[in-house]
Amino acid sequence: MQAFCSVTCGLSHSRAASETCSRRDLLRVGMVLVAGSGLGLLAPGSDNAKAASNSLEFLELRALDDSKKESRLPEFRKLADGVKVQDIAEGEGPSVEDGSRVAVHYVIRRSNGYFVDASYGFDRFDTFSFTSGSGDVIKGFDIGTKGMKPGGRRRFLVSPDQGYKTGTSKTSPGPIPPDWGNRRALSAHASEPLLFEVQVVKIR
């Protein structure tokens, strides 16, 4: 799998380094994810997805379902808190705000594109649920999901200082993989910028 372009410059603790990362580099991250749909990225729950779910190659390429190829993607935009987001689909209905109980599907990747964890697969087909603004999840995930609507899809880049700096144990702010192997993988890369892709399933 061809490595993603480096996006770490935009998430560096150095302000000067951050300013040198072009918007084009951030756009390429999303474009490579979409291009991967031609490499066997399958909808969770489909027969083909189940058959491929134990393949290491499939796991490294896993992404949320792209029912339509996105020929043109919006650029990443920087939120006030520094998290960079790319909206893929707006969704409909109420928006995520503090106090919202939210159910999502997610994929976590390293900044080079390699798969770390997902909320489905591995015999897991449940959504991940959290209460926005409660401390249930890492700061970057909480910020990145604010304003999303049911059916909405978004990608966002989370720097280490807004990520898993308190650890990746089962009691740490999520999302945390329930299985040991993926927790270990997440822990190994917790000091790196991480790329999340999230789809909101329900808000209540």
Automatic annotation (TrEMBL):
In the UniProt record, does the keyword RNA-binding occur? no
Extract the PROSITE patterns matched here: FKBP_PPIASE
Organism (species): Rhodosorus marinus
Output this protein's name.
peptidylprolyl isomerase
* Keyword entries, A-Z: Isomerase, Rotamase
PPIase FKBP-type domain mapped to chain residues? 99-204
Catalytic activity, reaction form: [protein]-peptidylproline (omega=180) = [protein]-peptidylproline (omega=0)
Instruction: State the top-level EC class.
Output: isomerase
- Pfam families to which the protein is assigned, alphabetical: FKBP_C (PF00254)
GO molecular function ontology, one term from the record: peptidyl-prolyl cis-trans isomerase activity
Q: SUPFAM superfamilies, from UniProt?
A: FKBP-like
- The EC designation for this entry is 5.2.1.8
**Sequence segments annotated as region (Disordered):** 159-178
